[in-house]
Here is the input.
Amino acid sequence: MSSVILIGVVTGVFLYGIYKRVNIFDVFIEGASENIKAAFDILPALVILMTMIAILNVSGVIEVFTRFISPITSIIGFPRECIPLALLRPLSGSGAMSVYESIVSQNHPDSFVGNVASVIMGSTETTFYTVAVYYGAAKIKNIRYTLICALAADISGFIVACAAVRLMM
Amino acid sequence: MSIFIVIACAFSLFVSVIKGTTEDVTQSILSSPQAAVELYFTLMGTMAFWGGVMRVAERSGLVAKIALIFKPILKRVFRDINPDGEAFGAIVMNISANMLGLGNAATPLGIKAVKELVKEQNANATATRSIITLVVINTASIQLLPTTIATIRQALGSNHPMAILAPVLLTSAIALIIGLLAISLCDTFSKTKIKQGTGNE
Here is the structure.
């Protein structure tokens, strides 16, 4: 099913582009090079954050830390390996990507832990960054209940991710 | 972020000396920067490819057409704003761009939408319910195709990189619904609080 979706989307977009007389090759190149630049811009952040996450991991800091928190998260069946990911996800996109990469390389991507980490990455966003960018640009100072609601969505995302992996994969 | 880096270094040094893992830490300081560049190369191709595909979708008017489908739903979510106004138009385009994974295009549209909402609702420096709703939708991931994550899975040896699609969509949907429910709960609560406040005066 999902294998049909990707090729279907790609074919559909290109056919519609041709039908609307868009020069799809040139436009494709334009969009592709913009994204390469965007990816390149996060590389320096990725270098420092992946190194920090790696030393936190191999030194044993993360292990000590998760042992402390895991009694709470184990109640809902949240895998302890994903705790650092859940904590970092709302704060930093590159940081979460670094943790995600380290989780999936230590556990097979098709394992329960790998799947839960993947679903968390695919279904949540860098909440604090987004809030800061939007309210900063619009010069809004009183954000009222924005963070409570955004974090409620994130936390329910973490919980539902485990349940969805158990039921659907 | 700077504080995080200092804490990470200090904790790692402290714990590694106690646990005797300093050798491993040294090794990962030397190898992790390279791993970051490898991850970048893993992702760059997919990001470039979908950036290209989605730019075609944008330029051909397909994104605007898809936006029409979401319009009726969004009218119900953003009930207190003018459905023919500038703000609503920007909201529809922002949310459609997010769904298609056009992060670079979505952010300026979203900022425009928030600014227009401030104007339309005379919000000044205080977030209104509509503004909060838009921001919360943007902090939830509503991207329909998790291609970046699928690429990392594939690069690390997954046999079914796209198998996460259905659980990702379900999780995103439930998280978003909880976020929206939380908004209407907080909104009702803050309104009654305001009423009580004025009643006492």
In short: The two ends of chain A are 14 Å apart (CA to CA).
